[in-house]
Design brief:
Length: 249
């Protein structure tokens, strides 16, 4: 049980938003009108990244100063049919973030203050949220970041964004509207390579920013595969957040 909760914490910390597994043959739902984004058949990788940014709010997406998410999450460990339920909260402000998991079995807190990463679990360190996944998409056009081509997958257009310090994420977008259908990242924790893959299931338009509201996440640790299902009940964009939220007390 504790192992499942620890993996739940690790899985949730590697993403900005959350959701539940569903029929992946269906396109993700959106609670607002889908933005029209034109994608040419011969579009360059950077053009694909720009299309994805535009689909999720364009300048509003890139300029979002704060994002708050609260909701529910369940995790399943290998060989176990029992899912571990919990509540989660993610608060981001620029490069800073605060992530909390609360359950009847286990509580977890992780904070990145822009320079240092603090964790309530010793040696439980993962790259900061801005280094991978959905939030990394907003950095595609910044100096030092590179966007390279990936083969299309299941009719989805693919590209990779790499940061100056060596982190990268692979994105696959809907060729009809540019929305990010899935993304994957790899990183190393205590000498072990970890792969995290997210499949978006439903989006919510909040103040002109299209954010994943529900998604399923697969976490691969060697031969072990863990699954987590997230669903955001509350999403806030550009709300006031006090700086002391990012101080470990």
């Amino acid at each position: 049980m504790k192992q499942a909760v620890l993996i739940l914490c690790l899985a949730a910390t590697t993403a900005l938003t959350v959701n539940a597994q569903q029929d992946k043959s269906k396109a993700p739902e959106a609670t607002a009108a889908t933005k029209v984004v034109m994608i040419k058949a011969d579009a360059a990788p950077l053009d694909l990244a720009k299309a994805a940014i535009a689909a999720h709010g364009g300048d509003k997406f890139k300029a979002a100063k704060t994002i708050i998410q609260r909701g529910s999450v369940e995790a399943t460990a290998p060989g176990s049919a029992q899912a571990v339920p919990a509540a989660y909260a993610v608060v981001t402000k620029g490069d800073r973030f605060r992530f909390e998991i609360t359950s009847q079995f286990f509580n977890f807190l992780q904070i990145f203050d822009g320079e240092q990463l603090y964790s309530s679990i010793a040696r439980f360190d993962v790259p900061p949220l801005n280094k991978m996944g959905f939030i990394l998409l907003t950095r595609a056009e910044e100096k030092g970041y590179t966007v390279t081509a990936l083969p299309d997958k299941k009719k989805r257009r693919g590209f990779r964004i790499s940061s100056p310090d060596g982190y990268s994420s692979d994105y696959y977008i809907d060729p009809a509207n540019g929305q990010v259908l899935s993304y994957e990242a790899k990183f190393t924790v205590e000498g072990r390579e970890i792969t995290t893959a997210v499949e978006n299931d439903k989006f919510r338009d909040v103040s002109g920013v299209l954010i994943p509201e529900k998604y399923s996440q697969r976490l691969q640790l060697g031969a072990n595969t863990f699954y987590a299902s997230f669903k955001a009940k509350e999403i806030l964009v550009n709300s006031e957040i006090a700086d002391d939220v990012f101080v470990m007390k």
